[in-house]
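Hi R.,

As promised on Friday, here is the backbone we talked about, encoded as structure tokens. Could you run it through your design pipeline when you get a chance and send me back a sequence?
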């Protein structure tokens, strides 16, 4: 079977493994205070043009999300999220377990707009019983979204404006950030993200690392005592150098962005083959995730050779299937999949 169901089936970008072996018996300070993490922090600050930014390395996305959100919110506050947001759907109530409510918004494409956030806040603060309700305190977004869609520079600028209006923090989950930035329609870069978000993270787990996410914080209030929060939430990784080493290698010579572009261009090829066969898409995406509406017989045929991800029924005879490429997808496997799509 060939796996096209997610982007973390493979192990790690080989230079990471080599660097880990080369430094395996080197002694270093623990808990992310070693020279490798410091070099990686400085590299990321440079890429983000974030001279005063704080950079922390955590193991996984759920851990990063719950640590940031719980640190940012006061006890009576919640976080606004798309209904399809990872914190709402795929984190086993991690945010609620910290005592905060996820305030969900229905979206057609997985993206929050400034108008959507405006409505949530307006409805809250104009309700005569507003003090009896969970107060919005943060906006959570991801780019790409869970549906593979990306935010534009203008959309993020508009979100920043409404967050400023209502004193909300803007936080971006960047689990697949590289894939979003490699999309042909992308018009944002890391310095822009640093200036528009209070915090965001650069995903490693889904983009070539064994594990690890690099959290970048601009907001001074969120920076305060943040390492205490990391420790309290179980994220103070003793052998922290393993995370720093991985990001050093991912960003060496622009590998992170090249690996993401590899995945996106292969996804474009698959997307083109599906479109040529007349199969519609549940949502338009230019990243490594494809959400295609397939007849059940076509799905069954493809699943004889390929592992895809079921994303729900579309109607009685069709389902939505996610086809996902990764930083390590073999182009030969993509050619084979395309040939099989063409023969359906």
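Update: got your reply. Pasting your designed sequence below so it's all in one thread:
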């Amino acid at each position: 079977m060939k796996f096209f169901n997610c982007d973390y089936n493979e192990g790690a970008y080989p230079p990471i493994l080599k660097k880990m072996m080369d430094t395996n018996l080197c002694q270093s300070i623990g808990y992310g205070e070693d020279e490798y993490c410091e070099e990686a922090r400085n590299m990321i600050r440079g890429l983000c043009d974030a001279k005063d930014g704080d950079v922390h390395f955590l193991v996984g996305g759920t851990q990063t999300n719950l640590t940031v959100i719980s640190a940012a919110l006061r006890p009576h506050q919640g976080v606004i999220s798309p209904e399809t947001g990872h914190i709402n759907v795929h984190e086993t109530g991690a945010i609620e377990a910290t005592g905060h409510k996820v305030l969900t918004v229905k979206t057609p494409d997985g993206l929050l707009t400034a108008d959507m956030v405006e409505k949530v806040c307006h409805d809250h603060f104009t309700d005569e019983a507003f003090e009896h309700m969970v107060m919005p305190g943060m906006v959570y977004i991801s780019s790409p979204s869970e549906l593979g869609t990306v935010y534009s520079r203008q959309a993020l600028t508009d979100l920043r404006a409404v967050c400023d209006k209502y004193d909300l923090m803007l936080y971006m989950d960047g689990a697949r950030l590289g894939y979003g930035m490699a999309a042909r329609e992308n018009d944002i870069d890391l310095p822009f993200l640093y200036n528009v978000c209070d915090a965001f993270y650069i995903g490693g787990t889904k983009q070539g690392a064994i594990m690890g996410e690099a959290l970048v914080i601009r907001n001074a209030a969120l920076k305060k005592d943040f390492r205490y929060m990391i420790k309290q939430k179980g994220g103070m990784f003793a052998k922290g150098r393993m995370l720093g080493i991985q990001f050093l290698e991912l960003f060496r010579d622009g590998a992170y962005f090249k690996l993401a572009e590899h995945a996106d261009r292969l996804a474009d090829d698959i997307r083109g083959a599906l479109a040529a066969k007349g199969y519609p898409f549940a949502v338009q995406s230019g990243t490594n995730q494809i959400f295609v509406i397939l007849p059940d017989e076509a799905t069954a045929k493809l699943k004889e050779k390929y592992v895809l991800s079921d994303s729900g029924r579309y109607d009685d005879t069709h389902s939505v299937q996610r086809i996902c490429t990764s930083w390590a997808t073999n182009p030969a496997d993509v050619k084979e999949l395309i040939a099989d799509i063409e023969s359906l």
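One thing I noticed while checking it: The chain has a mean pLDDT of 97.

Thanks again,
M.
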